[in-house]
Write a structure and sequence with these properties.
The protein is of the alpha+beta class. It has helices at about 10-25, 30-40, 45-55, 70-80, 85, 110-115, 130-140, 155-160; strands spanning about 95-100, 105, 165-170, 180-185. The protein starts with 9 loop residues before the first helix and ends in a 9-residue tail after the last strand.
Length: about 190
């Protein structure tokens, strides 16, 4: 059983680099980011954020703090970016190498499309690509996000209490929070 320090992998280093990059792009101090995270319900001290950013330096002897999934999501929320903006290297060109834990270095475009759910990062050469693409969609996205799926299934519509011709529409309230609203089909007016 390992009890020593676990080294950050490529994706952990990308998160560290991106936390620092996004914090500086916003013009925030460590304190400002700490306060924003606290307001979002995921308090991280200035020291913790500094230790996260220290992971950007490969082979550093400085204290490093790993980012867990809850930290990652809260950071994405306060920076107002997709989680993929923290997970992947911010490259200049789509052909630049992007190291990703578990697969190695791939072209940045492949990594970004995969992280955004729009492509695969690699294929198993022993299996048909079409089968792998179908499985990726089937297992990786809810049915209502599948390509070509513009409407809910009859069962889902019934479960949501939608009448024929009604749909759910994503909207945002005055505070910018998302919510779903029923929107019905327009009925023709009977003037006679």
């Amino acid at each position: 059983m390992t009890t020593g320090r676990i080294e950050l992998g490529a994706s952990g280093r990308a998160v560290a680099v991106n936390v620092k990059r996004l914090r500086k792009a916003r013009g925030w101090s460590l304190r400002a980011l700490s306060e924003a995270l606290t307001a979002a319900g995921r308090g991280l001290s200035q020291d913790a954020i500094n230790k996260i950013e220290n992971g950007a330096e490969e082979g550093t002897a400085k204290q490093i703090r790993r980012v867990d999934v809850d930290d990652l999501m809260a950071l994405a929320v306060v920076f107002e970016v997709n989680p993929s903006a923290l997970l992947l290297p911010f490259t200049d060109l789509p052909s630049d190498p992007a190291p990703v834990t578990g697969v190695g270095s791939v072209p940045a475009i492949a990594a970004w499309l995969w992280a955004d759910g729009r492509g695969r990062i690699r294929y198993n050469p022993d299996r048909r690509r079409e089968t792998q693409d179908m499985e990726s969609v089937l297992y990786g996205r809810p049915e209502w996000l599948h390509p070509g799926s513009h409407a809910l299934s009859a069962d889902a519509s019934k479960a949501l209490g939608l009448a024929e011709g009604e749909a759910l529409v994503l909207e945002y309230d005055e505070q910018g929070m998302p919510f779903m609203r029923k929107r019905g089909a327009r009925r023709e007016r009977d003037d006679g």
